[in-house]
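Recall from the previous chapter that SMILES is a line notation for molecules. Here it describes nicotinamide-adenine-dinucleotide.
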Amino acid sequence: MGDSAAERIETLLSGRRRVAVVSQSGVAAVHARPLTGALDRAGIAHEMFLVGDGEEHKTLATVEDLARRFARSGLLRGDAVVALGGGLVGDVAGFAAATYHRGIDVVQVPTTLLAMVDAAIGGKTGVNLPEGKNLVGAFHQPLGVLADPAVLATLPDREFRCGLGEVAKYALLGDDVLVDLLRERCGSLLARDREVLTEVVALCAADKARIVEADEGETSGLRARLNYGHTLAHAIETVAGYALAHGEAVGVGLVFAANLAAALERVGLAEVDRHHGMVAALGLPVEAPPGLRADDLIAVMARDKKSTGDLTFVLDGPGGIETVEGADERAVRTALAAIGVDA
Ligand SMILES: NC(=O)c1ccc[n+]([C@@H]2O[C@H](COP(=O)([O-])OP(=O)(O)OC[C@H]3O[C@@H](n4cnc5c(N)ncnc54)[C@H](O)[C@@H]3O)[C@@H](O)[C@H]2O)c1
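With both inputs in hand, we obtain:
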């Protein structure tokens, strides 16, 4: 966490008695000091609670452990949690805050690009079960989200690419200012130029906030737009394991979505080119990894949680980007072939 975000946290939490900072050892070692310094200056007592690194730690057991440690440290209803980390810390700490004392305030301090543009915004928190990802959770809007792109300097390349997949998504969802910025400053973004990162994060975060505000409880279908490119991405992750990082799979998924919209005659081939160009410019793959079979991907996509049983996708079309149910399987196979998947 950089100094500017630290200053804002003083204002946001001023008057609080006690704060539980939830983080991971690797993140806390490099980024906690400005935060704890700010809390010290504001006269707020604080304690660090570390959670494990890796999706296998996003469990109810971790939340129970946190809640018990909160209780032992004397954290009360009017106190607050600060989540300092990537999406995993945000989800776990957010869910612990949503349920501890039936809900205490949380401030999200995202430290990955993915968390800054996506996970920290929108109030979704939760953990995985052995039966599936994010199956237990709560909507719990943070008191604030403090994203300081300075912390992204230490993020490993693969994690940075995970965020770029979501950046491509917001651009292709129709953020023309972002499209122009990416066209002009793509090289600087990939070099993690702080000024460009600040602009990109601000635009993407505002895009997500706008969509979430319009459909906070995920009832009108608008929020489903955020899954653009994700149906195939999740299927690739399921079938190919970790051959691709999540953001890379989203890149392929966006190109697939454009090809499918074209195969269904919802958009012209120029849209396919536009998606291809955007994803490639961000250094993300535009084709599926070798060896994947269409039957396997289709079987997984038919089980997608956003689906009502048949093949459901978020696709561009004459009326804009929307959920399309009952997509013709032949068109799906054509679109899969276009991104290099074996028949
Ligand atoms: N709640 C939501 O709306 C939402 C949305 C999207 C994703 N998610 C969830 O987010 C999680 C993925 O988040 P993620 O991609 O941020 O991964 P992550 O939180 O697992 O972080 C990835 C790695 O980067 C490290 N790291 C974090 N910040 C760093 C920094 N500044 N410098 C160096 N290393 C750093 C972490 O310790 C970890 O090893 C998943 O569990 C996913 O389900 C939630």
